[in-house]
Amino acid sequence: MTDYNTILVERDGRTATITINRPKALNALNSEVMTEVVTVAEELDRDSGIGAIVITGSAKAFAAGADIKEMSDKTFSEVHNQNLFAGWDRLAKVRTPVIAAVAGYALGGGCELAMLCDFIIAADTAKFGQPEITLGVIPGMGGSQRLTRAVGKAKAMDLVLTGRMMDAEEAERSGIVARVVPAAELLQVVKEVAGTIAGMSLPVAMMAKEAVNAAFETPLAEGLRLERRSFHAAFATDDQKEGMAAFLGKRPATFSNS
Ligand code: CO8
Question: Is 143 among the catalytic positions?
């Protein structure tokens, strides 16, 4: 794969890992990180040889937020007219499952990037927060919306209005983190989880992801209809035939992603 300035990309079988790599800035998310992460994620999404994508950072920081140096002198018309950070929305449109593996700081845009992934597995060293208010701004990439849907109004207000950090245990208890694991095991666990997902039928995993995401965007009746229609549609795949035949034949399924 191509060389990048701010990320590392590694493929292992049907999984791919994007590692944000700006250690001197604690992986602060500047425009180049956004362009590289989103471009690679979209490339991987078009590649049917990839069934799961992991986004991670370093042991010290998943990402300590949007790059404050890059933003500090910008004017309203610059950030408004450039639609600053809107490019991250493209990551939310990726259909392949995306897991965030978070160790260390996931602050501001870093917390928002992690929440934009399908789910978060955190090291016990992880710290989440939306400290934008301490800089005189508010969250700009979902911190007031995805966080509130995940943790509820009371804790979202607490975090967004005080800018305090929460540790991995509080984040899991609050519902933004799926699992917490010892820091030394984070990448191994996440790669195993990604491998499990990548071993499923890709079109069916995409249907499952779309159905869960619909719960955030549609009224219940509409979400239930989408779920049922996607369930019916799964019967048009070879993988439904294989999955059920394998169960009945008491053997592991081998999906063809078709
Ligand atoms: N932007 C730019 N540089 C950063 C950032 C950042 N967000 N965070 C850390 N750095 C840099 C520091 O400036 C420092 O650089 P230098 O060595 O050149 O002075 C280096 O990283 C190391 O940082 P520290 O010395 O501060 O390290 P500490 O271990 O003492 O502290 C902290 C770690 C607590 C994480 C601290 O660095 C910190 O508070 N960082 C800022 C956190 C923050 O406020 N983040 C929110 C940013 S605003 C935002 O994210 C808006 C989101 C809008 C949408 C974005 C979508 C992507």
Answer: no
